[in-house]
From TrEMBL:
Residues 98-110 have a biased composition (Basic and acidic residues). Residues 7-53 form the F-box domain. PANTHER family: F-BOX ONLY PROTEIN 28 (PTHR13252). Residues 72-123 are annotated as: Disordered. InterPro entries: F-box-like_dom_sf, F-box_dom, FBXO28. One of its GO terms (biological process) is protein polyubiquitination. Coiled coil: none annotated. This is F-box domain-containing protein.
Length: 605
Protein backbone atom coordinates (compact mmCIF):
# COMPACT_ATOMS: atom_id res chain seq x y z
CA UNK A 1 0.00 0.00 0.00
CA UNK A 2 1.20 3.48 -0.81
CA UNK A 3 1.61 5.71 2.21
CA UNK A 4 2.89 9.01 0.84
CA UNK A 5 2.47 11.39 -2.08
CA UNK A 6 -0.97 11.11 -3.65
CA UNK A 7 -2.26 8.74 -0.98
CA UNK A 8 -1.66 11.29 1.77
CA UNK A 9 -3.71 13.93 -0.05
CA UNK A 10 -6.57 11.47 -0.45
CA UNK A 11 -6.38 10.63 3.25
CA UNK A 12 -6.71 14.30 4.17
CA UNK A 13 -10.04 14.65 2.37
CA UNK A 14 -13.28 14.12 4.34
CA UNK A 15 -15.12 10.86 3.66
CA UNK A 16 -18.13 12.72 2.27
CA UNK A 17 -15.99 14.46 -0.38
CA UNK A 18 -14.24 11.21 -1.36
CA UNK A 19 -17.56 9.37 -1.70
CA UNK A 20 -18.92 12.18 -3.85
CA UNK A 21 -15.88 11.94 -6.15
CA UNK A 22 -16.19 8.14 -6.36
CA UNK A 23 -19.86 8.44 -7.33
CA UNK A 24 -18.80 9.89 -10.69
CA UNK A 25 -16.19 7.23 -11.55
CA UNK A 26 -16.67 3.88 -13.28
CA UNK A 27 -15.79 0.57 -11.56
CA UNK A 28 -12.54 0.17 -13.51
CA UNK A 29 -11.11 3.47 -12.26
CA UNK A 30 -12.35 2.78 -8.74
CA UNK A 31 -10.67 -0.63 -8.76
CA UNK A 32 -7.36 1.06 -9.55
CA UNK A 33 -7.88 3.67 -6.84
CA UNK A 34 -8.14 0.92 -4.24
CA UNK A 35 -4.37 0.48 -4.52
CA UNK A 36 -3.64 4.08 -3.60
CA UNK A 37 -4.43 4.05 0.13
CA UNK A 38 -6.21 2.02 2.80
CA UNK A 39 -8.79 4.75 3.19
CA UNK A 40 -9.65 4.60 -0.49
CA UNK A 41 -9.77 0.82 -0.41
CA UNK A 42 -12.35 0.98 2.37
CA UNK A 43 -14.42 3.72 0.74
CA UNK A 44 -14.26 2.16 -2.72
CA UNK A 45 -16.13 -0.88 -1.39
CA UNK A 46 -18.64 1.16 0.59
CA UNK A 47 -21.99 -0.62 0.38
CA UNK A 48 -24.10 2.52 0.57
CA UNK A 49 -22.21 4.10 -2.35
CA UNK A 50 -22.70 1.10 -4.63
CA UNK A 51 -26.26 0.44 -3.51
CA UNK A 52 -27.22 4.00 -4.46
CA UNK A 53 -25.49 3.66 -7.83
CA UNK A 54 -27.27 0.35 -8.47
CA UNK A 55 -30.57 2.04 -7.66
CA UNK A 56 -30.03 5.24 -9.65
CA UNK A 57 -28.87 3.38 -12.78
CA UNK A 58 -31.43 0.57 -12.57
CA UNK A 59 -34.01 0.19 -15.38
CA UNK A 60 -36.59 -0.13 -12.59
CA UNK A 61 -35.95 3.45 -11.45
CA UNK A 62 -35.85 4.77 -15.01
CA UNK A 63 -39.20 3.10 -15.70
CA UNK A 64 -40.67 4.63 -12.53
CA UNK A 65 -39.48 8.15 -13.42
CA UNK A 66 -40.78 7.83 -16.99
CA UNK A 67 -44.13 6.62 -15.69
CA UNK A 68 -44.43 9.56 -13.32
CA UNK A 69 -43.37 11.97 -16.04
CA UNK A 70 -46.05 10.56 -18.34
CA UNK A 71 -48.78 10.88 -15.72
CA UNK A 72 -47.59 14.35 -14.78
CA UNK A 73 -47.81 15.54 -18.37
CA UNK A 74 -51.31 14.02 -18.70
CA UNK A 75 -52.47 15.85 -15.59
CA UNK A 76 -50.98 19.12 -16.86
CA UNK A 77 -52.87 18.80 -20.13
CA UNK A 78 -56.08 18.15 -18.20
CA UNK A 79 -55.53 21.23 -16.05
CA UNK A 80 -54.86 23.32 -19.16
CA UNK A 81 -58.16 22.24 -20.71
CA UNK A 82 -60.02 22.98 -17.49
CA UNK A 83 -58.33 26.38 -17.17
CA UNK A 84 -60.30 27.72 -20.14
CA UNK A 85 -63.49 27.38 -18.11
CA UNK A 86 -62.23 29.20 -15.02
CA UNK A 87 -63.96 32.40 -16.17
CA UNK A 88 -67.30 30.56 -16.05
CA UNK A 89 -67.16 27.96 -13.25
CA UNK A 90 -70.80 26.98 -13.68
CA UNK A 91 -70.27 26.15 -17.36
CA UNK A 92 -67.37 23.93 -16.40
CA UNK A 93 -69.50 22.11 -13.88
CA UNK A 94 -67.46 23.47 -10.95
CA UNK A 95 -69.91 23.85 -8.08
CA UNK A 96 -67.09 24.49 -5.58
CA UNK A 97 -65.83 27.70 -7.13
CA UNK A 98 -65.97 29.42 -3.77
CA UNK A 99 -63.35 26.99 -2.48
CA UNK A 100 -60.83 28.54 -4.85
CA UNK A 101 -61.28 32.04 -3.38
CA UNK A 102 -58.68 33.56 -1.13
CA UNK A 103 -59.12 33.05 2.57
CA UNK A 104 -57.95 36.39 4.01
CA UNK A 105 -56.97 39.60 2.21
CA UNK A 106 -56.10 37.92 -1.06
CA UNK A 107 -53.97 35.21 0.61
CA UNK A 108 -54.72 31.80 -0.93
CA UNK A 109 -55.13 28.62 1.07
CA UNK A 110 -51.82 26.73 1.52
CA UNK A 111 -53.50 23.33 1.01
CA UNK A 112 -55.71 22.75 -1.99
CA UNK A 113 -58.78 20.58 -1.38
CA UNK A 114 -58.39 16.93 -2.47
CA UNK A 115 -54.59 17.13 -3.08
CA UNK A 116 -51.82 15.96 -0.70
CA UNK A 117 -49.02 18.24 0.33
CA UNK A 118 -45.94 18.34 -1.85
CA UNK A 119 -43.38 15.80 -0.67
CA UNK A 120 -39.69 16.54 -0.55
CA UNK A 121 -37.46 15.07 -3.23
CA UNK A 122 -35.17 13.45 -0.68
CA UNK A 123 -38.07 11.72 1.06
CA UNK A 124 -39.34 10.49 -2.31
CA UNK A 125 -35.93 9.04 -3.24
CA UNK A 126 -35.71 7.15 0.05
CA UNK A 127 -39.15 5.65 -0.51
CA UNK A 128 -38.31 4.73 -4.10
CA UNK A 129 -35.10 3.01 -2.99
CA UNK A 130 -37.01 1.07 -0.33
CA UNK A 131 -39.53 -0.12 -2.94
CA UNK A 132 -36.73 -1.14 -5.29
CA UNK A 133 -34.40 -2.79 -2.73
CA UNK A 134 -34.48 -6.54 -3.56
CA UNK A 135 -32.76 -7.73 -0.38
CA UNK A 136 -34.31 -9.25 2.72
CA UNK A 137 -33.28 -8.85 6.38
CA UNK A 138 -30.06 -10.71 7.28
CA UNK A 139 -29.25 -11.23 3.60
CA UNK A 140 -25.59 -10.51 2.85
CA UNK A 141 -24.94 -8.52 -0.29
CA UNK A 142 -21.80 -7.04 -1.82
CA UNK A 143 -23.23 -4.06 -3.64
CA UNK A 144 -19.89 -3.47 -5.33
CA UNK A 145 -20.15 -6.90 -6.99
CA UNK A 146 -23.84 -6.29 -7.61
CA UNK A 147 -23.10 -3.08 -9.50
CA UNK A 148 -20.46 -4.80 -11.63
CA UNK A 149 -22.89 -7.57 -12.57
CA UNK A 150 -25.59 -5.06 -13.45
CA UNK A 151 -23.52 -2.45 -15.28
CA UNK A 152 -19.93 -3.61 -15.68
CA UNK A 153 -18.29 -4.96 -18.86
CA UNK A 154 -18.91 -8.58 -19.83
CA UNK A 155 -17.00 -11.19 -21.81
CA UNK A 156 -17.92 -14.65 -23.08
CA UNK A 157 -15.15 -17.18 -22.44
CA UNK A 158 -15.37 -20.65 -23.96
CA UNK A 159 -13.91 -23.47 -21.90
CA UNK A 160 -11.45 -25.82 -23.56
CA UNK A 161 -13.17 -28.03 -26.11
CA UNK A 162 -12.67 -31.80 -25.64
CA UNK A 163 -11.26 -33.41 -28.75
CA UNK A 164 -10.62 -36.95 -29.92
CA UNK A 165 -7.50 -37.68 -31.94
CA UNK A 166 -7.05 -40.86 -33.90
CA UNK A 167 -4.60 -41.65 -36.72
CA UNK A 168 -3.91 -38.03 -37.49
CA UNK A 169 -7.57 -36.99 -37.47
CA UNK A 170 -9.10 -34.70 -34.88
CA UNK A 171 -12.75 -34.14 -33.99
CA UNK A 172 -14.61 -32.13 -31.35
CA UNK A 173 -16.42 -34.05 -28.60
CA UNK A 174 -19.75 -32.54 -27.59
CA UNK A 175 -20.70 -32.09 -23.93
CA UNK A 176 -24.08 -33.62 -23.00
CA UNK A 177 -24.76 -32.00 -19.63
CA UNK A 178 -23.36 -29.81 -16.86
CA UNK A 179 -23.05 -29.79 -13.08
CA UNK A 180 -20.55 -28.25 -10.67
CA UNK A 181 -18.37 -30.33 -8.35
CA UNK A 182 -16.93 -28.82 -5.16
CA UNK A 183 -14.45 -31.34 -3.69
CA UNK A 184 -15.09 -31.73 0.05
CA UNK A 185 -18.01 -29.33 -0.38
CA UNK A 186 -15.64 -26.46 -1.12
CA UNK A 187 -13.41 -27.06 1.93
CA UNK A 188 -10.41 -28.56 0.16
CA UNK A 189 -8.14 -25.65 1.06
CA UNK A 190 -7.94 -24.07 -2.41
CA UNK A 191 -11.63 -23.59 -3.17
CA UNK A 192 -11.60 -25.87 -6.21
CA UNK A 193 -14.61 -25.68 -8.51
CA UNK A 194 -14.85 -28.27 -11.28
CA UNK A 195 -17.38 -28.58 -14.08
CA UNK A 196 -18.58 -32.14 -14.74
CA UNK A 197 -20.02 -33.21 -18.06
CA UNK A 198 -20.66 -36.45 -19.98
CA UNK A 199 -19.19 -36.43 -23.48
CA UNK A 200 -20.56 -37.83 -26.69
CA UNK A 201 -18.13 -40.75 -26.69
CA UNK A 202 -19.37 -42.02 -23.33
CA UNK A 203 -16.55 -40.51 -21.29
CA UNK A 204 -16.61 -38.00 -18.42
CA UNK A 205 -14.75 -34.69 -18.52
CA UNK A 206 -13.70 -32.39 -15.67
CA UNK A 207 -12.85 -28.71 -16.23
CA UNK A 208 -11.05 -26.39 -13.79
CA UNK A 209 -13.45 -23.43 -13.70
CA UNK A 210 -11.34 -20.98 -11.66
CA UNK A 211 -7.84 -22.27 -12.24
CA UNK A 212 -7.16 -23.51 -8.70
CA UNK A 213 -5.57 -26.76 -9.93
CA UNK A 214 -4.44 -25.76 -13.40
CA UNK A 215 -5.22 -23.22 -16.08
CA UNK A 216 -8.63 -21.55 -15.73
CA UNK A 217 -11.12 -23.07 -18.18
CA UNK A 218 -8.85 -25.98 -19.09
CA UNK A 219 -9.65 -29.69 -19.03
CA UNK A 220 -8.38 -31.21 -15.79
CA UNK A 221 -9.14 -34.90 -16.42
CA UNK A 222 -11.04 -37.18 -18.80
CA UNK A 223 -12.14 -40.74 -18.19
CA UNK A 224 -11.95 -43.66 -20.56
CA UNK A 225 -14.47 -43.66 -23.34
CA UNK A 226 -17.64 -45.82 -23.37
CA UNK A 227 -18.02 -46.04 -19.57
CA UNK A 228 -21.35 -44.19 -19.73
CA UNK A 229 -22.80 -46.37 -22.46
CA UNK A 230 -25.52 -48.80 -21.44
CA UNK A 231 -23.60 -51.89 -22.56
CA UNK A 232 -20.34 -50.64 -21.08
CA UNK A 233 -16.88 -50.38 -22.68
CA UNK A 234 -15.98 -52.58 -25.60
CA UNK A 235 -19.52 -53.00 -26.88
CA UNK A 236 -21.10 -51.68 -30.05
CA UNK A 237 -22.53 -48.37 -28.89
CA UNK A 238 -23.06 -46.52 -32.15
CA UNK A 239 -26.83 -46.26 -31.62
CA UNK A 240 -28.17 -43.12 -29.92
CA UNK A 241 -30.49 -45.26 -27.82
CA UNK A 242 -27.46 -46.48 -25.85
CA UNK A 243 -26.02 -43.01 -25.09
CA UNK A 244 -26.91 -40.01 -22.96
CA UNK A 245 -30.18 -38.54 -24.24
CA UNK A 246 -29.44 -35.14 -25.77
CA UNK A 247 -32.93 -33.95 -24.83
CA UNK A 248 -32.37 -34.34 -21.07
CA UNK A 249 -31.00 -31.15 -19.53
CA UNK A 250 -30.73 -32.26 -15.88
CA UNK A 251 -28.84 -35.49 -16.57
CA UNK A 252 -26.03 -35.04 -13.98
CA UNK A 253 -26.16 -34.78 -10.19
CA UNK A 254 -23.06 -34.51 -7.99
CA UNK A 255 -22.47 -35.59 -4.38
CA UNK A 256 -19.68 -33.30 -3.15
CA UNK A 257 -19.16 -35.14 0.15
CA UNK A 258 -18.82 -38.65 -1.28
CA UNK A 259 -17.09 -37.50 -4.50
CA UNK A 260 -19.68 -39.26 -6.61
CA UNK A 261 -21.72 -38.23 -9.66
CA UNK A 262 -24.90 -39.80 -11.03
CA UNK A 263 -25.57 -39.78 -14.76
CA UNK A 264 -28.92 -40.45 -16.42
CA UNK A 265 -28.34 -42.63 -19.50
CA UNK A 266 -31.67 -43.58 -21.07
CA UNK A 267 -33.35 -45.74 -18.39
CA UNK A 268 -30.14 -46.31 -16.39
CA UNK A 269 -28.62 -44.38 -13.49
CA UNK A 270 -24.84 -44.78 -13.51
CA UNK A 271 -22.80 -43.89 -10.41
CA UNK A 272 -19.25 -42.62 -11.02
CA UNK A 273 -16.37 -42.14 -8.58
CA UNK A 274 -15.09 -38.65 -9.49
CA UNK A 275 -11.67 -39.23 -7.92
CA UNK A 276 -10.96 -42.34 -9.99
CA UNK A 277 -13.39 -41.63 -12.87
CA UNK A 278 -14.66 -45.20 -12.78
CA UNK A 279 -18.13 -46.77 -12.64
CA UNK A 280 -19.27 -47.72 -9.13
CA UNK A 281 -22.81 -48.98 -9.75
CA UNK A 282 -25.66 -49.11 -12.24
CA UNK A 283 -29.36 -48.91 -11.44
CA UNK A 284 -32.09 -49.47 -14.02
CA UNK A 285 -35.59 -47.99 -14.10
CA UNK A 286 -38.68 -49.10 -15.96
CA UNK A 287 -38.80 -45.97 -18.14
CA UNK A 288 -36.33 -43.45 -19.52
CA UNK A 289 -34.94 -40.95 -17.02
CA UNK A 290 -35.83 -37.37 -17.97
CA UNK A 291 -34.67 -35.36 -14.91
CA UNK A 292 -32.54 -35.63 -11.76
CA UNK A 293 -32.72 -33.47 -8.66
CA UNK A 294 -29.66 -32.05 -6.97
CA UNK A 295 -28.07 -34.18 -4.26
CA UNK A 296 -28.43 -32.73 -0.75
CA UNK A 297 -27.27 -34.19 2.53
CA UNK A 298 -29.44 -36.80 4.24
CA UNK A 299 -32.18 -36.90 1.59
CA UNK A 300 -32.65 -39.34 -1.32
CA UNK A 301 -32.07 -38.38 -4.92
CA UNK A 302 -35.35 -37.68 -6.73
CA UNK A 303 -35.45 -39.30 -10.17
CA UNK A 304 -37.99 -38.32 -12.79
CA UNK A 305 -38.79 -40.81 -15.52
CA UNK A 306 -41.04 -40.38 -18.51
CA UNK A 307 -44.01 -41.77 -16.56
CA UNK A 308 -43.20 -41.41 -12.88
CA UNK A 309 -41.24 -39.97 -9.96
CA UNK A 310 -38.90 -42.13 -7.84
CA UNK A 311 -36.98 -41.59 -4.60
CA UNK A 312 -33.57 -43.22 -5.02
CA UNK A 313 -31.75 -43.61 -1.71
CA UNK A 314 -28.21 -44.25 -2.90
CA UNK A 315 -27.08 -44.57 0.75
CA UNK A 316 -29.06 -47.81 1.15
CA UNK A 317 -27.80 -49.41 -2.08
CA UNK A 318 -25.27 -51.63 -0.32
CA UNK A 319 -27.86 -52.91 2.17
CA UNK A 320 -30.33 -53.71 -0.61
CA UNK A 321 -27.70 -55.62 -2.57
CA UNK A 322 -26.68 -57.66 0.49
CA UNK A 323 -30.31 -58.57 1.26
CA UNK A 324 -30.89 -59.71 -2.32
CA UNK A 325 -27.84 -62.02 -2.20
CA UNK A 326 -29.08 -63.65 1.03
CA UNK A 327 -32.46 -64.32 -0.55
CA UNK A 328 -30.91 -66.02 -3.56
CA UNK A 329 -28.68 -68.17 -1.36
CA UNK A 330 -31.62 -69.37 0.70
CA UNK A 331 -33.60 -70.13 -2.46
CA UNK A 332 -36.83 -69.32 -0.62
CA UNK A 333 -39.42 -67.95 -3.05
CA UNK A 334 -42.08 -67.52 -0.41
CA UNK A 335 -39.73 -65.43 1.72
CA UNK A 336 -39.50 -62.84 -1.04
CA UNK A 337 -43.28 -62.84 -1.49
CA UNK A 338 -44.01 -62.17 2.18
CA UNK A 339 -40.98 -59.95 2.74
CA UNK A 340 -42.15 -57.04 4.97
CA UNK A 341 -39.59 -54.68 3.42
CA UNK A 342 -41.61 -52.07 1.50
CA UNK A 343 -41.10 -51.50 -2.20
CA UNK A 344 -39.25 -48.44 -3.37
CA UNK A 345 -41.56 -45.40 -3.39
CA UNK A 346 -42.91 -44.46 -6.78
CA UNK A 347 -45.45 -41.87 -7.96
CA UNK A 348 -47.10 -42.36 -11.34
CA UNK A 349 -47.83 -39.41 -13.62
CA UNK A 350 -50.97 -38.99 -15.68
CA UNK A 351 -49.06 -36.63 -17.98
CA UNK A 352 -45.57 -37.73 -19.09
CA UNK A 353 -42.07 -36.26 -19.02
CA UNK A 354 -40.97 -34.29 -15.95
CA UNK A 355 -38.11 -31.94 -16.89
CA UNK A 356 -37.12 -30.13 -13.68
CA UNK A 357 -37.12 -31.27 -10.03
CA UNK A 358 -36.16 -29.14 -7.03
CA UNK A 359 -35.97 -29.73 -3.29
CA UNK A 360 -37.32 -26.72 -1.41
CA UNK A 361 -34.66 -25.15 0.88
CA UNK A 362 -35.23 -24.57 4.59
CA UNK A 363 -35.93 -20.97 5.55
CA UNK A 364 -32.78 -19.36 6.87
CA UNK A 365 -30.58 -22.26 5.67
CA UNK A 366 -30.28 -22.26 1.85
CA UNK A 367 -27.88 -25.24 1.92
CA UNK A 368 -30.40 -27.45 3.76
CA UNK A 369 -33.62 -28.77 2.25
CA UNK A 370 -37.06 -29.48 3.59
CA UNK A 371 -39.33 -32.43 2.78
CA UNK A 372 -41.02 -30.53 -0.06
CA UNK A 373 -40.39 -31.61 -3.66
CA UNK A 374 -41.64 -29.66 -6.69
CA UNK A 375 -41.81 -31.20 -10.16
CA UNK A 376 -42.38 -29.36 -13.44
CA UNK A 377 -42.30 -30.51 -17.03
CA UNK A 378 -44.30 -30.89 -20.20
CA UNK A 379 -47.59 -30.53 -18.37
CA UNK A 380 -49.60 -27.54 -17.24
CA UNK A 381 -49.22 -27.94 -13.45
CA UNK A 382 -46.27 -27.83 -11.05
CA UNK A 383 -46.67 -30.82 -8.71
CA UNK A 384 -45.89 -30.70 -5.00
CA UNK A 385 -44.87 -33.82 -3.03
CA UNK A 386 -43.98 -34.26 0.64
CA UNK A 387 -41.16 -36.75 1.12
CA UNK A 388 -42.79 -38.02 4.35
CA UNK A 389 -46.07 -38.78 2.56
CA UNK A 390 -44.69 -39.76 -0.84
CA UNK A 391 -46.11 -40.75 -3.36
CA UNK A 392 -49.24 -38.74 -2.48
CA UNK A 393 -49.52 -35.43 -4.35
CA UNK A 394 -49.97 -32.73 -1.71
CA UNK A 395 -51.16 -30.04 -4.12
CA UNK A 396 -50.36 -28.46 -7.47
CA UNK A 397 -49.82 -24.99 -8.96
CA UNK A 398 -51.48 -24.26 -12.27
CA UNK A 399 -49.10 -22.61 -14.73
CA UNK A 400 -50.43 -23.31 -18.21
CA UNK A 401 -46.87 -23.29 -19.55
CA UNK A 402 -44.56 -26.21 -20.20
CA UNK A 403 -41.85 -25.82 -17.55
CA UNK A 404 -38.20 -26.18 -18.61
CA UNK A 405 -36.44 -25.21 -15.38
CA UNK A 406 -37.19 -24.18 -11.80
CA UNK A 407 -35.40 -22.52 -8.91
CA UNK A 408 -36.36 -21.58 -5.35
CA UNK A 409 -35.28 -18.90 -2.89
CA UNK A 410 -35.82 -19.08 0.89
CA UNK A 411 -37.57 -15.69 0.92
CA UNK A 412 -41.29 -14.82 0.65
CA UNK A 413 -42.93 -13.35 -2.42
CA UNK A 414 -46.24 -11.48 -2.61
CA UNK A 415 -47.58 -10.72 -6.07
CA UNK A 416 -49.71 -7.90 -4.63
CA UNK A 417 -46.83 -6.21 -2.77
CA UNK A 418 -44.58 -6.69 -5.80
CA UNK A 419 -47.04 -4.91 -8.10
CA UNK A 420 -47.48 -2.00 -5.68
CA UNK A 421 -43.71 -1.73 -5.18
CA UNK A 422 -43.15 -1.59 -8.93
CA UNK A 423 -45.03 1.71 -8.90
CA UNK A 424 -43.12 2.95 -5.83
CA UNK A 425 -46.31 3.30 -3.80
CA UNK A 426 -45.38 1.52 -0.54
CA UNK A 427 -43.93 3.58 2.28
CA UNK A 428 -40.58 2.61 3.78
CA UNK A 429 -42.37 1.30 6.87
CA UNK A 430 -44.70 -0.85 4.76
CA UNK A 431 -41.78 -2.28 2.77
CA UNK A 432 -39.90 -3.15 5.97
CA UNK A 433 -42.98 -4.74 7.49
CA UNK A 434 -43.70 -6.83 4.38
CA UNK A 435 -40.17 -8.24 4.45
CA UNK A 436 -39.95 -8.92 8.18
CA UNK A 437 -43.41 -10.42 8.61
CA UNK A 438 -43.51 -12.37 5.36
CA UNK A 439 -43.21 -16.15 5.54
CA UNK A 440 -42.64 -18.66 2.80
CA UNK A 441 -40.50 -19.17 -0.27
CA UNK A 442 -40.23 -17.93 -3.83
CA UNK A 443 -40.60 -20.46 -6.66
CA UNK A 444 -39.30 -19.37 -10.08
CA UNK A 445 -40.33 -21.28 -13.19
CA UNK A 446 -39.12 -20.69 -16.73
CA UNK A 447 -40.80 -22.31 -19.68
CA UNK A 448 -42.81 -21.91 -22.86
CA UNK A 449 -46.34 -20.57 -23.19
CA UNK A 450 -48.04 -20.47 -26.60
CA UNK A 451 -44.68 -20.74 -28.40
CA UNK A 452 -43.24 -17.83 -26.40
CA UNK A 453 -40.86 -17.80 -23.46
CA UNK A 454 -42.42 -17.38 -20.02
CA UNK A 455 -41.06 -16.50 -16.58
CA UNK A 456 -43.38 -17.09 -13.63
CA UNK A 457 -42.86 -16.36 -9.93
CA UNK A 458 -44.99 -17.99 -7.24
CA UNK A 459 -45.14 -17.23 -3.54
CA UNK A 460 -45.16 -20.39 -1.43
CA UNK A 461 -46.52 -19.89 2.08
CA UNK A 462 -46.38 -23.50 3.32
CA UNK A 463 -44.66 -25.43 6.06
CA UNK A 464 -33.76 -12.90 -2.79
CA UNK A 465 -29.70 -10.07 -3.43
CA UNK A 466 -28.74 -11.54 -6.77
CA UNK A 467 -31.07 -10.59 -9.63
CA UNK A 468 -32.76 -13.40 -11.46
CA UNK A 469 -30.73 -14.59 -14.47
CA UNK A 470 -31.92 -16.95 -17.23
CA UNK A 471 -31.43 -17.67 -20.93
CA UNK A 472 -33.88 -17.29 -23.80
CA UNK A 473 -34.46 -18.91 -27.17
CA UNK A 474 -32.75 -16.09 -29.07
CA UNK A 475 -29.28 -16.85 -27.72
CA UNK A 476 -29.24 -14.22 -24.94
CA UNK A 477 -28.58 -14.33 -21.21
CA UNK A 478 -30.93 -11.95 -19.38
CA UNK A 479 -30.85 -10.54 -15.89
CA UNK A 480 -34.12 -9.54 -14.19
CA UNK A 481 -35.07 -7.90 -10.91
CA UNK A 482 -36.81 -10.10 -8.37
CA UNK A 483 -40.18 -8.86 -9.52
CA UNK A 484 -39.67 -11.04 -12.60
CA UNK A 485 -40.75 -8.21 -14.93
CA UNK A 486 -37.99 -5.58 -14.96
CA UNK A 487 -35.05 -6.53 -17.17
CA UNK A 488 -31.65 -5.37 -15.84
CA UNK A 489 -29.41 -6.29 -18.75
CA UNK A 490 -28.86 -8.86 -21.48
CA UNK A 491 -25.90 -10.41 -23.27
CA UNK A 492 -25.82 -12.39 -26.48
CA UNK A 493 -23.69 -15.51 -26.21
CA UNK A 494 -22.52 -15.53 -29.82
CA UNK A 495 -20.50 -18.33 -31.32
CA UNK A 496 -17.32 -20.14 -30.35
CA UNK A 497 -15.14 -19.12 -33.27
CA UNK A 498 -12.19 -21.21 -32.11
CA UNK A 499 -13.92 -24.45 -33.15
CA UNK A 500 -14.58 -23.40 -36.74
CA UNK A 501 -12.53 -24.92 -39.53
CA UNK A 502 -10.83 -22.54 -41.98
CA UNK A 503 -13.33 -21.34 -44.59
CA UNK A 504 -13.61 -18.93 -47.48
CA UNK A 505 -16.59 -17.45 -45.71
CA UNK A 506 -14.92 -17.08 -42.30
CA UNK A 507 -15.79 -13.39 -42.21
CA UNK A 508 -19.51 -14.17 -42.30
CA UNK A 509 -21.21 -14.11 -38.90
CA UNK A 510 -22.11 -17.55 -37.60
CA UNK A 511 -25.32 -18.48 -35.83
CA UNK A 512 -25.29 -17.80 -32.10
CA UNK A 513 -25.40 -20.47 -29.41
CA UNK A 514 -28.30 -21.01 -26.98
CA UNK A 515 -27.76 -21.62 -23.26
CA UNK A 516 -29.67 -24.68 -22.07
CA UNK A 517 -28.41 -24.50 -18.48
CA UNK A 518 -26.76 -21.76 -16.40
CA UNK A 519 -25.16 -22.01 -12.93
CA UNK A 520 -23.45 -19.59 -10.57
CA UNK A 521 -19.71 -19.92 -9.84
CA UNK A 522 -19.68 -18.08 -6.51
CA UNK A 523 -17.12 -19.57 -4.12
CA UNK A 524 -18.37 -21.53 -1.13
CA UNK A 525 -15.46 -21.06 1.26
CA UNK A 526 -13.72 -18.07 2.81
CA UNK A 527 -14.86 -14.44 2.87
CA UNK A 528 -16.77 -12.99 -0.03
CA UNK A 529 -14.48 -11.69 -2.75
CA UNK A 530 -15.52 -8.86 -5.09
CA UNK A 531 -16.72 -9.90 -8.54
CA UNK A 532 -16.59 -13.61 -7.75
CA UNK A 533 -19.88 -14.76 -9.26
CA UNK A 534 -19.49 -15.49 -12.96
CA UNK A 535 -22.12 -17.36 -14.97
CA UNK A 536 -21.24 -20.81 -16.30
CA UNK A 537 -23.48 -22.09 -19.09
CA UNK A 538 -23.97 -25.16 -21.28
CA UNK A 539 -25.24 -24.86 -24.85
CA UNK A 540 -26.00 -28.53 -25.41
CA UNK A 541 -22.61 -29.05 -27.05
CA UNK A 542 -19.98 -26.99 -25.21
CA UNK A 543 -19.35 -25.02 -22.02
CA UNK A 544 -18.85 -21.28 -21.70
CA UNK A 545 -18.36 -18.69 -18.96
CA UNK A 546 -19.64 -15.11 -18.74
CA UNK A 547 -17.14 -13.02 -16.80
CA UNK A 548 -17.58 -9.43 -15.70
CA UNK A 549 -14.25 -8.25 -17.05
CA UNK A 550 -13.21 -5.81 -19.81
CA UNK A 551 -11.18 -8.52 -21.58
CA UNK A 552 -11.70 -12.29 -21.87
CA UNK A 553 -10.16 -14.47 -19.18
CA UNK A 554 -8.98 -16.94 -21.81
CA UNK A 555 -9.44 -17.81 -25.47
CA UNK A 556 -9.53 -21.03 -27.47
CA UNK A 557 -5.94 -20.62 -28.61
CA UNK A 558 -4.78 -20.55 -24.97
CA UNK A 559 -5.56 -24.27 -24.68
CA UNK A 560 -3.69 -25.31 -27.82
CA UNK A 561 -0.63 -27.46 -27.34
CA UNK A 562 2.79 -26.29 -28.41
CA UNK A 563 2.51 -26.11 -32.21
CA UNK A 564 4.49 -28.50 -34.34
CA UNK A 565 6.78 -26.66 -36.78
CA UNK A 566 5.62 -28.66 -39.79
CA UNK A 567 1.95 -28.35 -38.80
CA UNK A 568 2.33 -24.60 -38.29
CA UNK A 569 3.91 -24.24 -41.72
CA UNK A 570 1.13 -26.28 -43.30
CA UNK A 571 -1.50 -24.16 -41.56
CA UNK A 572 0.16 -20.96 -42.77
CA UNK A 573 0.27 -22.32 -46.33
CA UNK A 574 -3.43 -23.20 -46.14
CA UNK A 575 -4.22 -19.71 -44.89
CA UNK A 576 -2.27 -18.06 -47.71
CA UNK A 577 -3.98 -20.24 -50.29
CA UNK A 578 -7.42 -19.37 -48.94
CA UNK A 579 -6.53 -15.67 -48.98
CA UNK A 580 -5.32 -15.88 -52.59
CA UNK A 581 -8.48 -17.71 -53.60
CA UNK A 582 -10.66 -15.07 -51.96
CA UNK A 583 -8.74 -12.34 -53.82
CA UNK A 584 -9.22 -14.20 -57.13
CA UNK A 585 -12.96 -14.42 -56.50
CA UNK A 586 -13.06 -10.69 -55.76
CA UNK A 587 -11.19 -9.90 -59.00
CA UNK A 588 -13.57 -12.09 -60.96
CA UNK A 589 -16.58 -10.34 -59.41
CA UNK A 590 -15.07 -6.97 -60.38
CA UNK A 591 -14.60 -8.15 -63.97
CA UNK A 592 -18.22 -9.30 -64.17
CA UNK A 593 -19.47 -5.94 -62.91
CA UNK A 594 -17.16 -4.11 -65.36
CA UNK A 595 -18.37 -6.17 -68.34
CA UNK A 596 -21.99 -5.52 -67.36
CA UNK A 597 -21.38 -1.80 -67.93
CA UNK A 598 -20.83 -2.61 -71.65
CA UNK A 599 -23.98 -4.66 -71.92
CA UNK A 600 -22.35 -8.08 -71.51
CA UNK A 601 -23.84 -10.51 -69.08
CA UNK A 602 -20.68 -12.19 -67.89
CA UNK A 603 -20.65 -15.93 -67.61
CA UNK A 604 -24.31 -16.33 -68.44
CA UNK A 605 -23.94 -14.98 -71.97
Amino acid sequence: MASSGRSSRWDELPDEIVLQILSYLDPLHITRLQLVSRKLQKLCLDDELWKRRCFEESPWYQYLKNRRRLFSSSESEGETRDGAALGNPEAAGNTNADDQKTTTDGEKSSVEPGKPQRRSQRWQELQDMANWDPTFPNERVSWYSEYIQRNGPTCVNWLETPRIRDRGYEAMMEARGLELYYPYDGNDGVGAMLAVSPLDDGSICLWDVKGTRGKAGSILATSKSDILFIDGPGSINTRRSKRVDTGVTECVSVDNHRHRAYFAVQSHLIEIDLERLEVVSRESFEWSITALSKIQNDVPLTVGTSLGIHLHDFRARARVTQTAVEQVDQNDIFKSIFDPTPLLPYASLSQPTPVSIIHLPIRGSPDLVSNDIYVGGRFSNILHYDRRKFPVIMDSIYSGATINSMAAMPHPFSSLDSEVRRHGELSTEQVTKSKENGEGWTLIAGGTYKSKGSLEIFGLTQAIADPIVFSDGAGSIKWFERDGLTECRRLRIGHCEGDDAPSLFASMSAAGELARKIVSTKSREGPDRPNDDNVLFWTGERLGLISFTPTPLYQSKDFDEEPDIDAAAEEEERRRYAEQLREALDWHADEVRFMNTFGHGGLGE
